[in-house]
Each structure stands twice: as C-alpha cells, then as structure tokens.
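Worked problem 6 (solution included).
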Amino acid sequence: MKKQFKTKGVEVEVVELKNQLIRALADYDNLRKRTDLEKEIWIKFASERILVSLLPVLDSLEEALKHLQDQGLAMAVGEFKKIFNEEGLEEVQPKAGEEFNHEIHEVIEVEDGGQKDTIAEVTLNGWKFKEGKVIRFAKVKVFTGKKLTDK
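Solution. The predicted structure is:
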C-alpha cells in the first residue's frame, strides 16, 4: 500500500526526487554504455597496433618460405595468418591483370603498355579489417596503357 502524504509540498518533493533518481539512473546507464564502447575501441586500437607491427615479421617469413620449402616455416606463416584472421583481418591479394582499386591498392610504380589502370605486378599483399579499414595497402605496379612508342 502506498503511503499517502497530507501535504502537497511533500508530494511535490517526492515527485521531484523520483524524477532525479530516474535521470541519475539514465545518466549512469549512458555512462556505462559509453565506457564499454570506449573500452572496446581501445582494445581494438591496441590490437591493431600490435598486428601492424607484426606484418613485417610475417612478410619476412613469407619471403623466406619462397626460397626454403620448410614445413616448420610454412606452419609458422599459417599460424600468423590464422591469428590475423581471428583478430578480424583479411589479406588483400590482388592479381596481375585485375583493375587497380585505390581503396585497397597503392601504386609504387607505373609501367608502359598493358591495359590502362590494371595491375602489372604485385609487390606486397595488403591487409584490412573485415569491416573495411585498411591497415596496409597492397603495393602494386600498374600499367599506363601507353605503348613505348606513344608520346
């Protein structure tokens, strides 16, 4: 049973305190949500920095694997890629003949001939988060579409 107050001043004060409590609870809930989001972003940013710093190690292992057909080395490369994938990364692996895409590729050299704005050669694969943010552009050589005799 609700307690009835006889004076209007007390009833008004109860309503005001109730409204303040509701606002305080809403503020607390918003703070909690904002803090959770900031924590999630901070963790992702921290892992991104670590992943970016490990890319050159993976590149070196892959380069070594091209020259040494070593099972242990192949397993290490596979484990690196598995971890990257579990962290939400995917490798950008362009192929010669594909159309150049400035959103995921970086031109490091141009070459006369071929079809304009197509990839002539891939120097280094890129990496991006599955939701789209590129952490390293694929390094490519692109055809200009001009023949050597064109001016």
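Discussion: The mean pLDDT is 89.
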